[in-house]
Protein 1
Amino acid sequence: MERLFTEEIEALQLGEGETFHGEGILAVTKGLLQSGVAYVGGYQGAPVSHLLDVMVQARDYLDTLGVHVEACTNEASAAAMLGASINYPMRGAVTWKSIVGTNVASDALSNLASAGVTGGALIVVGEDYGEGASVIQERTHAFALKSTMCLVDPRPSLPHIVDMVEASFELSEACNAPVIMELRIRACHVQGSFATRANRAPAISARAPMAEPAAFLYDRLAHPPATFRQEKLKSDVRMPAARRHIMARGLNEQIDGAHSELGLIVQGGLHPNLVRAMQQLGLADGFGESQLPMLILNVVYPLVPEQISAFCASRRAVLVIEEGQPEFIEQELALLLRRAGVDTALHGKDMLPLAGEYTAEVILRGLHRFVATHGPDIDIAAGTRTLEHIDALRTQAASALGTGMPPRPPTFCVGCPERPVFAAIKLVEREVGTPHIAGDIGCHALATFEPFSVGNSILGYGMGLASAAAVGPAMNRRTLSIMGDGGFWHNGFLSGVSSALHNGDDSILVVMKNGYTSATGTQDLLSTPAESARAAARANSAVHADQRIEQTLKGAGVRWLRTVNNYRVGDMVGVLREAFTTAEGGLKVIIAEGECQLERQRRIRPILAGLLRAGKRVVRTRFGVDADTCSGDHSCIRLSGCPSLTLRDSGDPLKVDPVVQVNHACVGCGLCGEVAHAAVLCPSFYRAEIVQNPGLIDRLLWGVRNRVTGWLAPQ
Amino acid sequence: MSTLPERPLTILIAALGGEGGGVMADWLVAAATAQHFPVQSTSIPGVAQRTGATTYYLEIYPVPTSELGERRPVLALTPSPGYVDLMVASELIEAGRAMQNGFVSPERTTLVASTHRIYTTLEKMHMGDGRIDPERILGAASTLARRAHLFDMAALAQQAGTVISAVLFGAMAGAGVLPIPRAACEAVIRASGKGVEASLRGFDLGWKHATGEATERPAAQIKRWVANPSERVHATLPVEVQPFADEGATRTADFQDAAYASLYLDRVEAVAKIDREQGGGAAGYALTRETARFLALWMCFEDVIRVADLKTRRSRVDRVREEAMAKAHEPVHIVEYLKPGVDEIASIMPAALGRAFEGWAKRRGLRLQKGLYIRSTSLTGFLMLRTLAALRPLRRASLRFGIEQQTIDRWLAAIRSAAATDLGLALEIALLGRLIKGYGETYQRGRENFLRIMATLVDAGDGREPAARRAAVRAAREAALADPEGRKLEGSLAAAGITPLPPRAKPIQFLRKPPARTSGRAH
């Protein structure tokens, strides 16, 4: 795993009345333990990876509590885990990145939500929305609505988040429905502190196992005819119970303000940005004291009609601040107010943008419009000035800079084993033509950026091969699909490989076998090489030690299967060429082998440091480019894009273009040289082998060579 | 409570994945916490941990919680334009990006940014020079920021043996905006327990440069000019051109021999003569200067002989040792990645033989490209390369030598002929020399582009206005440098009224359609 959570694991063990300092998502984790959770599962992904990662690393401690942790292979299996809470009074929590993870989990979630739960079931989703998001922009809200699950969107201060974790379990148990807690990216990564409570060991657990399974009860099966009754239960029993609990516990917060003729209804997660916007308008102080009354919805579903109409009834106008589309809350509010006969003017997405993140600036613009329209006597000159200032500032910056700054998207790491595969694809395209390339989710999706710009579609995690099924038959060139080993186990084998085999599709699949789910922080996979194999491999790739992917493919009936060492670009070009041109039909799979460089570097750094300290001989490899022969055409960069391959002034007064240099980040993977070879680029690349702690023979030979070459070489 | 500040101090940090921006944000949080100030930080890492742009945002309310009673400030999670007190950027164009987004304002923002560059892929992949002009960003910073502390923190980090985040932290503390004393910041670094001494050294350098106690040494002059101008250059060429011609003469002599250098100067002088007659002095003899520049580079084309020679010089081994940061007692072995093919072999053969060999290889479909890994620091490898280098006297008879001289003469004739009426056009033609560079396919492509522009826009003395001709040649050159596939060049030529060449045929792999499937499967 990419990160070690030693200190964080200690923080998870804090007792009554101590102070936890740390990240939002780890505060949630601590909240789970304080709530007596019995089992935790999930699938990693930003921004919630740390919840599961820290739990996996804290297994020893969790065993003492009896908390079971499962690193699920996809979100569907994580959601299905919550099935334990249907029959047994066990609190369970799962986590994943949303919207994508919720999509994958939705079948199990529907069944879970229909059957209902006895023990509290909490789903912590990272709402990957707005700046920094890496998935399609949709709302988790829709899933809560369609499956009638409660949706919690807590005001993101750490003490409140933790309180809401415990409240969510109670809510789930009060209404027998699963509860989703959505946390935006910045809320997951917010650093703060809260006063801890002691962790609670669950009543039923590995340490206190049950003697017998639950009695057979048809009503707990999501199977007809029980499903018909369950649908009625949702509306007649569960949601009313949830609403009563929300009111009784005061889960939503109301703040009064001087201008009682207006009101704001806001999702809890947006509260701090709303306060900042009000401050800029001159309508709030820095402590959240507001001149406009405010209803903060920490539970955004279900809404409580009495609470809403009571808040709105006496006011001239209300603004709903609700991020993302469609405006589910606003729509429901309109319905509730209409039914209640409340004729308060209702605004929301008519004054705020339909799409995109609600930063303080976005909210400020909408709020400014709202107050200007309905509170003409309220002084918002400060806000007007702020908005004018911002616009002027951007114009001034644009003219001072003259040109837009080039984007800086993420890219493959230095020495990444996936980069050479895309270099080989670019090269083989010159021979066999450009194929349709189905992209996928994983580090390899970074090949969609420059310099590769590879990929015609992305349809979801593990979906690349399946997404090419109808393209291949309509084209005279075979399609090429990319899949990571993470995607393979997540669902690519089932959705892609088995379907292609079943239908006899003639296409090519490249499986990036790097050994981990690297994009999410190098978590282990089913096919991650064993610890012993990794230790033995030292600085080399260890992934060949595990053959489960190959065995699975062969067992399923793949006949054309080749394994290539990624860094041998020439070999990769050869195998790709063969795959594109062979007369053999059916699915052709290329296993692109090369262990994640992050893991290799993490493994080898301490080993090398130890050897150097002990005075042992260590050969360090560095690549370089001769400035004398580099012509400044940069084709090597266009075929590799390695971050350590960069530019510098040539130092030659005649040459105008910058030359290429390899900077000190180089890990010596050798790709640049291999690409120069495979593409017949130029003779400028060299490999330097620096012998550290040289032995006697090293020094003798070196001395002799130096003498002779020094005598013959010109200056 | 009326004396409480209205708003928190807001800090936005723009960094690149893997630079330790997160560590720095944690340091700040810890330092503020130690002062009992309410503090909140958040970040947008996402997949940007893989070297992409990433931001950290902090708010510190500079009043100890003991003075706040039960009240706590509400701290925002997103930065607002015009509302940032301290903008920190770990790299120059990230500072530019922050300005572009409105996060640097003259009323409020202190900008602390490192001036070093980590080029984006888009800048690096350009076929010529796609780098953003740093002066624009430095200039914008001086007008947009309330105060700007700009210096090369990557160099200081290297000097201190630490990472850039330590220097940035020191610079932030030294910029005088943080409500946290220096000692408290250093205490946080000490408490972190890892690489403490180096981090403190970096912190100190950052502090001193931000407070003005230390200033940057001016960047070393990296261009290596020839020291002594030759008498001939001094006597015959304008002073503006002399350093270029000196460099060119030295280089052509080094490439071949004194006679070749003399030929070089003859060629430059012929252009200089017309340049003078046409009043080129007003433009600083730009035409002669650029001709001298690209002519020298062209005349010293890199064939196998030249490459072998350059790879086996003592100065080169020293340079590699320095770049690889080898210590004095550490042996360094150098392995060369060479892949000579039919073209490279034919190019150094005598012209007739070379042509016959090329034809033979073409008929046989041979490319003969074999990747070689030559250990130029071993005796055999070294001797092999020196032997190749020793073929230099025979070069004059080689196939490539003849071809290059012919094209050079054609280019120079076009420059001279244009210069007689339009110095500007002649300069644009001289600058076409920039297209001739590289090896293998790169070289072929550049040469084809050069010849295409010569044939369409230069040789054909059409009736176009001089200004339009200059613009067309310039646009074509820029297009040729912008796109390796050559499509932009054809587009540019089409805009100048030239019928574009048909796109190069792409191979299509026709598959045999699989036989219609018989229903062998159970339904």
Protein 2
Amino acid sequence: MVHNSLPLQWRKYPERYYLRGNYCENCKTSFFPQRQICPNCRRKGKLVEKETPYTGKIVSWTEVSVAPFGFENETPYFLAIIELENKVKILSQIVDSKKEKIKTGAKVKKLFRKISDIDPEGAIAYGYKFKVVD
Amino acid sequence: MRSVSIIGCGLTKFGEHWEMSFRELIAEAGVKAIESANIEGKTIQAIYGGCMASGRLIGQEHIGALIADQFGLNPIPATRVEAACASGGVALRSGILAVLSGAYDIVAVGGVEKMTEVSTEHASFALGGAGDQETELFHGATFPSLYALMARRHMEEFGTTEEQMAACAVKNHKNACNNPNAQFQRAITIEDVMNSGYVASPLKLLDCSPITDGAATLILCETEKAKKLCENPVEIIASTQASDSLALTGRKSLTEMAATKIAAKEAFEKAKLQAKDIDFAEVHDCFTIAEILATEDIGFFKKGEGGKAVEKGKTSLDGEIPINPSGGLKAKGHPVGATGVAQAIETFLQLRGEAEKRQVKDAKIGLTHNVGGSGATAVVHIYKAIGGKR
């Protein structure tokens, strides 16, 4: 299962543990995950590593009742698209939050959580989930 | 300037074909297409085959050569084309470009998917590959959930309702009742959809297209030659394609598909037509919200008006712009690699006046719209009926 590949987990620590993205100093745009070239400036772009803010707000959300392979035991769970404070959008599960508080515009902050543990031979994958903050 | 026309088509029934294998499906569609074009198989010079996920669904890759072999057409070149759920549409476009280039005069374009060999969970995982594995699927996103995120946003920005989305499913099931190749030839009601249970809120089971086995094949021919070979070829007057980020989070907006807008705009420019000139369209309704987005992004309705339009019957078979007379992906079925080719087949039949009880009246110009993933690929084709030999 690709989710639990050990080299993949190892490569993804900065992204999945610390939301490390990058930033183009030429067009002042933030990216997450990191990009290899700036799509706005292409060769003129100047990308530098930059951590993404840990807080933002929900742009859209859904309650998932039918899960994909490996998430069957977690239903129902919430997924949201979040706009972080640097305008970067990120898709994440929303956990540890009352259902009625999960709505568009709600403020959220990043947590560190287990994401996937479906391959008995593979690595347990950790990363980000978000919760609603009052 | 060379141009390309369709001279024949073959389609299997769409549905759960437990009695048929991948290769039997594509062979049936291929044989039917060659018979329908009334040509010798050996006049076909190349094959383009759309297939999304055979590796995960049946453990088989190398589909191009497999199709050539099943058609009995070795040793002509055969190429698999993959663009997720737009594989069929992009295969069609590849075949068109090959004929336009002058490399070939006659090519076959196939599309096939065998999806019921594995469990629904495994099929869903395979389909998930159309999204972004690292930032979407990894977090438990499914295709219904990605479209649900678009649907919620559309509801909140434009007041689109769950009942309006349900109306798409009701209309498409109604159309499919008159399509003998459709998976679901039965009518449903708004209540059925509303009571069908959430898969990913606000989308319910009956907002979603099904898992389907099926295959489709078209025979394409250079237009001057087509007029000699065929009584009523259908000319493809525009073929366009656009790309966007795999992940939803990379899009400028959640309530429009930029790739669809760009492909449609370029197609209208090429065909020297406008949205109002189109008599009917087969659009990519993998979910009901996708049909609403498509009718807005192609330009049939203003942004935000798509939900109201379907509710008012504007997209019904007898409405101002019939959408998905075949029943669409929702009710005809969605064997992902075959879908884009099957849309072209429906258009071919409609423009030849051969669509029987689901015939759109006075259909002269048709449009197809095929999407990969949640909008990372969009393919648009425009077709026109032309006269041939008498």
